C-alpha cells in the first residue's frame, strides 16, 4: 500500500476539533507566542556544552541548537504525525496571514515555521516564505503544503538560538563584548554570565573557551525573520567610512587619494579594448578616462597619439591649484 493511500485512509485524530478551535481563537488572534528553548541557569563557567550550528548567515548572524536531542525527537514526531494526518490539518488559504505559526512541508520533511511573506509569484506559482523556527533559516513553500499545528505544539519552545562570534555585536543587544587583555575569552564569559541575571543577553562557551565564545540574545523570532528576508541585507558599504577606501578629507569635502598603483592587474587590463586606432581618436575610452592607452587597450598597446597628456582648460587648472595649495 502506498504512502498516499495510508494518508487518505487514516482517521482524523480525536483532538483535531480542540486543535482547530485553539488555532481560530488563540493563534489567529496572535495571543500565542512560541519562546526560545533556552535556560540560562544551565550554563556554568568552565564546563563544555555540545551544540549544533543549524544555519549560518554571516559571522554575526547564525543559529545554534543546544537541545538537539530534544529537537530530533520533536521532528521525528512531526514527520510521523503529519505524514498520516496532513489531509486533516491542511490550512485553508483564506487563513494565511503574516506572523502565523504553522507546520510546513519542504525539502522532504515537516517543520514548524512562521509565515513572513505572502504571496510571492515565481514562474506562475504562488510561494509563501516561511521562517523555520527550530533551524533559523528561511524557506519557500507552496500554499498547499501549509498546515495548522496541534495545540500541544505551541507549548514546545523553538530550538534555534541566534548567536554571533565573540567580538561581533548583536544588533539591539544590551550587552557588548568587553575589550580585555590576558585571558579575554574567560573574562567575557564570566562577566556576561554575571550580568545575565538582569540583562537580556548571555554568553555561551563552546567546546573550548580559549578559542570561541558566543554572545546570544533572547528575543522574539520576528526580529530574525525580517533580517533574513530575501533581498534585505545589511551591506558592508553602509558601515565603512569613505576614508577607508580611497578618499581623504580636505577643505570641507572628500578628495580622492592619488596613487601610483595600476588600476588593476596587467592580466586583467589586457582583456579590455577601446575604440582607438594607431592615430588620434577623440572617442578613445582610455583618453576619456585620462588613462594612457597601454594600461587598457589591447589593440594599439599604447602606440598612438592618445598617450599625449590631456590638457585642462584654465578654469580646471586653477581649481586644481586651489585644491593642492589653498594658500595661493
Automatic annotation (TrEMBL):
<dbReference type="GO" id="GO:0005737">
    <property type="term" value="C:cytoplasm"/>
</dbReference>
<dbReference type="InterPro" id="IPR035437">
    <property type="entry name" value="SNase_OB-fold_sf"/>
</dbReference>
<dbReference type="InterPro" id="IPR002999">
    <property type="entry name" value="Tudor"/>
</dbReference>
<dbReference type="InterPro" id="IPR050621">
    <property type="entry name" value="Tudor_domain_containing"/>
</dbReference>
<protein>
    <recommendedName>
        <fullName>Tudor domain-containing protein</fullName>
    </recommendedName>
</protein>
<feature type="domain" description="Tudor">
    <location>
        <begin position="95"/>
        <end position="156"/>
    </location>
</feature>
<dbReference type="Pfam" id="PF00567">
    <property type="entry name" value="TUDOR"/>
</dbReference>
Amino acid at each position: 500500500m502506498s504512502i498516499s493511500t495510508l494518508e487518505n485512509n487514516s482517521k482524523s485524530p480525536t483532538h483535531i476539533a480542540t486543535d482547530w478551535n485553539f488555532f481560530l481563537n488563540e493563534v489567529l488572534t496572535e495571543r500565542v507566542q512560541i519562546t526560545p528553548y533556552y535556560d540560562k541557569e544551565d550554563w556554568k563557567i568552565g564546563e563544555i556544552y555540545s551544540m549544533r550550528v543549524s544555519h549560518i548567515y554571516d559571522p554575526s548572524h547564525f543559529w545554534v541548537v543546544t537541545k538537539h536531542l530534544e529537537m530530533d525527537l520533536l521532528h521525528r514526531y512531526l514527520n510521523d504525525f503529519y505524514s498520516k494526518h496532513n489531509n486533516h490539518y491542511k490550512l485553508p488559504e483564506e487563513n494565511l496571514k503574516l506572523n502565523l505559526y504553522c507546520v510546513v512541508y519542504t525539502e522532504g520533511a515537516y517543520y514548524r515555521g512562521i509565515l513572513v511573506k505572502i504571496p510571492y509569484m515565481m514562474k506562475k506559482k504562488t510561494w509563501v516564505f516561511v521562517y523555520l523556527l527550530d533551524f533559523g533559516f528561511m524557506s519557500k513553500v507552496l500554499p498547499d503544503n501549509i498546515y495548522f499545528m496541534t495545540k500541544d505544539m505551541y507549548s514546545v519552545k523553538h530550538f534555534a538560538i541566534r548567536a554571533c562570534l565573540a567580538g561581533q555585536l548583536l544588533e539591539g543587544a544590551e550587552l557588548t563584548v568587553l575589550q580585555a587583555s590576558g585571558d579575554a575569552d574567560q573574562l567575557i564569559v564570566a562577566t556576561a554570565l554575571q550580568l545575565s541575571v538582569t540583562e537580556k543577553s548571555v554568553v555561551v562557551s563552546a567546546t573550548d573557551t580559549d578559542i570561541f565564545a558566543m554572545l546570544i540574545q533572547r528575543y522574539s523570532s520576528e526580529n530574525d525573520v525580517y533580517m533574513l528576508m530575501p533581498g534585505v541585507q545589511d551591506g558592508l558599504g553602509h558601515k565603512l567610512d569613505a576614508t577607508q577606501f580611497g578618499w581623504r578629507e580636505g577643505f570641507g569635502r572628500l578628495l580622492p587619494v592619488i596613487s601610483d598603483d595600476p588600476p588593476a592587474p596587467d592580466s586583467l587590463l589586457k582583456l579590455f579594448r577601446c575604440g582607438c586606432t594607431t592615430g588620434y581618436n577623440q572617442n578613445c575610452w582610455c583618453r576619456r578616462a585620462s588613462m594612457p592607452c597601454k594600461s587598457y587597450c589591447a589593440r594599439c598597446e599604447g602606440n598612438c597619439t592618445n598617450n599625449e597628456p590631456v590638457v585642462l582648460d584654465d578654469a580646471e587648472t586653477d581649481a586644481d591649484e586651489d585644491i593642492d595649495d589653498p594658500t595661493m
